[in-house]
Amino acid sequence: MSQVITSGNSARRILVASLIGTTIEFFDFYIYATAAVLVFPKLFFPFSTPTLATLQSFITFALAFAARPIGAALFGHFGDRKGRKATLVAALMTMGPSTVAIGLLPGYASIGIAAPILLALFRFGQGLGLGGEWGGAVLLATENAPEGKKAWYGMFPQLGAPIGFLISSGTFLILSKTMSDQQFLSYGWRIPFIASAILVWVGLYVRLKITETPDFLKVMEKNERVKVPFAEVFTKHTRAIVLGTIATITTFLLFYLMTVFTLSWGTSALHYPKSSFLIAQMISMLFFGLGIPISAVMADKYGRGKMLIIATIGIFIFGLFFAPLFSTGSLGITILFQIIGMFLMGLTYGPIGTALSEIFPTSVRYTGASLAFTLAGIFGASLTPFLATTLATKYGLPYVGYYLSIAAAITLLALIAANSLMRDNAKE
């Protein structure tokens, strides 16, 4: 009686559409993270001491993580009710204009207190869009994947993270090399924010060419759509949302320690030149990108849960060596430190989207996976640069590593508990 429903999407179209969208979204997100360290403390918070201005800038950075669950619930509702395609387009069109607006925003010297307020508002818009983007991109890939290749397909949206970061860091590196500090602070930092409008147009064009996923078409055919996916997730899939969130926390924590915190601490307390540290981070991103397909292949062969458990154990051990590797004063060892951390990041990040999508049924999958991912962002990333800076300043750099190891231990327990859910719901 059951009818096989197929999509009109070719494999190439699916993977390009899922990859290009997350690349654009993460590019937008990362240029803010870089500017939050290098520009915003001086431009939007000049009335504070340098340390306090940096912390205030990190607070606006954290706002996006508060917005992401709201975006996940909002876009997840329409993604589970109306379909993946239209929702993905809407998410892209939410974040893009917010990013461009930041690039056009006058500083504190021009409009006073309105400048940091508007900065916070547009940052919130970035988070709202990304909250709806990620889950839809992962589902576009995994719900079109052939049997035995779900993690492989699901890793393509994840590749948007290292690619977006490389484009972002490369852009800032070029600007820093071709402009004086005064030119960069005056107008140079605005260029990537405004130029992102071109990338958004490209992403929109590709997304409008795709068709709906077979899994969602089956839900429509069987009339299985739920009225309020958000409520359904928290009332009927409580265990999945709690375990999925905790299991993802360390992924976020590691990434923002290795990017935002290390950039800030490395260029201030450790006195590395800005351009040298950006190059070190770009090198490490190549290993981040390498870890993603390796982990996807392993996850398809041995299981998502097992791969994530192995990666998390590696992160726990890395946390114990965080300070000794980062505080040597040697740029070469610092690059090695960045490579190890970001390769581990690739190993945990590659399968996480597929794993989260598999612990929720199709009818609430967009909402459930997006909420677990974005809630983990709040606990694992939103205050990470702030907390890590505070720990390093008050107690020393080793405590940043302990912070990471403790989080990894908690995540490990959640992954072990969630393993049965991943196995049970891998096939509906």
TrEMBL record:
It comes from the Bacteria. It is a multi-pass membrane protein. One of its GO terms (molecular function) is transmembrane transporter activity. The chain crosses the membrane at residues 12-33, 53-76, 88-111, 187-208, 240-265, 277-296, 308-326, 332-352, 364-388, 400-422. PROSITE patterns: MFS. InterPro entries: MFS (IPR011701), MFS_dom (IPR020846), MFS_sugar_transport-like (IPR005828), MFS_trans_sf (IPR036259). Keywords: Cell membrane, Membrane, Transmembrane, Transmembrane helix, Transport. It is found in: Cell membrane. GO terms for cellular component: plasma membrane. It holds the Pfam family Sugar_tr. Residues 14-426 form the Major facilitator superfamily (MFS) profile domain. The keyword Transmembrane helix applies. SUPFAM superfamilies: MFS general substrate transporter (SSF103473). The keyword tRNA-binding does not apply. This is Metabolite-proton symporter. It comes from Mucilaginibacter mallensis.
